[in-house]
Amino acid sequence: MSDHQSMAAGWYPDPMKAGHQREWNGSQWVGPSVPVGGQKKGGFPKWLIPVIACLGLAFIAVIGGAIAGSPDEEADQVRSDRSTTTTEPDGFAKCNDGSISDNADLGAICSSHDGVSGWLSEYGECEDGTVIALRDDPQCRSDGDLAKLLPGYEPEAGPDDIALCKDGTFSDNLDLAATCSSHDGVEDWLADYGRCEGDEVTRLEDDPRCPGGDDLAELMPPDYAPPTTTEPPATTAPPTTTAPPTPAAPPTPPPPTTPAETVSQANARGSAAQYLEFQAFSRSGLIEQLEFEGFSTEDATYGVDAQNADWNEQAAKSAAQYLEFQSFSRSGLVDQLIFDGFTPAEAEYGVSTTGL
Predict the structure, then answer these.
(1) Residue 352 and residue 356: Cα distance in Å, rounded?
(2) Angstrom distance (rounded) from CA 59 to CA 150
(3) Closest Cα to residue 356, out of 331, 325, 338, 336?
(4) Can you give the pLDDT of all 356 residues of the chain as single tens digits?
(5) CA 280, CA 324: separation in Å to the nearest integer?
(6) Which positions ≥6 away from 272 have C-beta within 8 Å?
(7) What are 170's strand-pairing partners?
(8) What beta strand segments (E) does the chain contain?
(9) Most buried one in 131, 168, 287, 317, CB count within 10 A?
């Protein structure tokens, strides 16, 4: 044993196994016995090779895991990156519950999301091409849908426009009682004077009207001035001889005149026009609506009859509106229209246009 302990560290013949050698660390044998020639004296011990290989693989796995991170952490990072990415909203209005609505029906937009919080543009274009301001409770003509938003739009007067409305848009409605009626009223007229359908010229200020409830035909040029009458110069007549008086002829009675439209009648006419612009009515139903607003029966009847409405057409519109929201049999829909004040003939006509 003392001889072995005096040996320097290295590889020597294995005293326990002929033809093999084993490593001596200077004080004892270590490692397995290997065939002679498998390791030179003082060389690298082959039995450490699999140990180092295992340690290397473990080290690579640890480093790879640290670099890659866990799948959950990577998914959280992706979600975090996405949450900070902003995109342009795709819709017409922001609802009170925070969602964005692309419902083009202005009467129903955000209806199931606590109402409209704000519009995504100040102006929009309806299906019929008219431009409306998106404020408060906007409406397209004839209950049409909104076609698109007009970001950055600045309203300009068109060749047929006659007034600037209070919501910033322009109106070409020649019915003076209804001009800008769905745009918060008239802010300013685009001319001082206008010519009515009956050729009378009216001054466009405050609440102008054409005689007989006629529509406006056109605006007068900016330099138009109403004609003024001048008295002919007085002349000195030669002296005349006094003739005996002749009996005077009986006065000719003046021709009967049509009584002028009263303010209340004009208001009833304007209110009836506004109702028919957005909803279908029967004649009796519209009269009752005006009476409900406080107009007398006479003024309400005057306002409704002044529309010269096609009640068959109104019955067809009403039938179509009912079928948009509810299913009906033919007889049931006819009864509903009669209940709304349409005559049986008008109701039958209106339902027949729906294909029932």
Answers:
(1) 6
(2) 62
(3) 331
(4) 455 556 788 888 888 888 888 888 888 888 788 887 655 444 555 555 565 666 767 666 656 555 554 444 443 333 334 333 334 458 999 999 999 999 999 889 999 999 999 999 989 999 988 888 888 788 888 788 999 999 988 888 889 999 999 888 899 999 999 998 888 889 999 999 999 998 999 999 888 999 988 999 999 999 998 887 666 666 666 666 666 676 776 777 776 655 689 999 999 999 999 999 988 999 999 999 999 999 999 999 999 999 999 999 999 999 999 999 889 999 999 999 999 999 999 999 999 999 88
(5) 14
(6) 286, 290, 300, 303, 304, 306, 307
(7) 164
(8) 10-13, 20-24, 29-35, 93-95, 100-101, 116-119, 123-126, 131-133, 146-149, 163-165, 170-171, 186-189, 193-196, 201-203, 216-219
(9) 287
Torsion of CA 327, 331, 333, 335, to 10 degrees: -140
State the Cα angle at 137 between 105 and 299, rounded to 5°.
105
